[in-house]
Amino acid sequence: MKNLLFTLICFSTVNLSAQGEFLPPKMEISDYSLSKFLTELTLAVGKQDKQFIVDHLDPHILNNFGGDGGIDEFKMQWNLEGDSTNLWEILENILLIGGPGHISSTYENSYTLPFTFSDWPEEYDAFEHYYVLGNNVNVRDKPTTENSEVIGQLSYQIVKISDIEENRISEETKWLHITTVDNSLSGFVYGKYLVSPIGYRMGLIKRNNGWMINMLVAGD
């Protein structure tokens, strides 16, 4: 969780090199109340503070696309009453990726992060593309760091999932075979550096008593 301390800095200006494919927005948030809440949320996730999360859930929170929603469903889905939950890992990843620098222009007083969902370019199919989150991420000729060669590097750009047998991240290897959108490079990238635009995202809404979490879902 120490990486979340770095996330607090990420709500200031972040300039990223997109190499022509995708330039992440500057994560400067003009709304002070939102910036303050994101800082508090980041600290709460770092401390695994269940009560803070529950206290800031919207009564009608969307938890999945098949349920009824609500706080009780959230608690059950994330096993908050149990001994273990992967909620903290999910929230940490969302916060580490970061959100856009703007409140939604479609829905007043709402905010969705990470930016890989909220600001994803429409010209790239969300089911066929991933985002390389990192600077100089190695692309290898084999899905391993042993006996493989680095054939290129990618920084903060969109890539296409290759239409071959290895076109999925396996639970065993965690590698994905990708191709750059200009077809100049094709190889394997380790899964921790790849973000799906339809992966987990969190929605926030501003109520009279402050910002609340009104969505935590994945998929489409």
From TrEMBL:
Protein name listed in UniProt: SH3 domain-containing protein
Originating organism: Flagellimonas okinawensis
Organism lineage string: Bacteria, Pseudomonadati, Bacteroidota, Flavobacteriia, Flavobacteriales
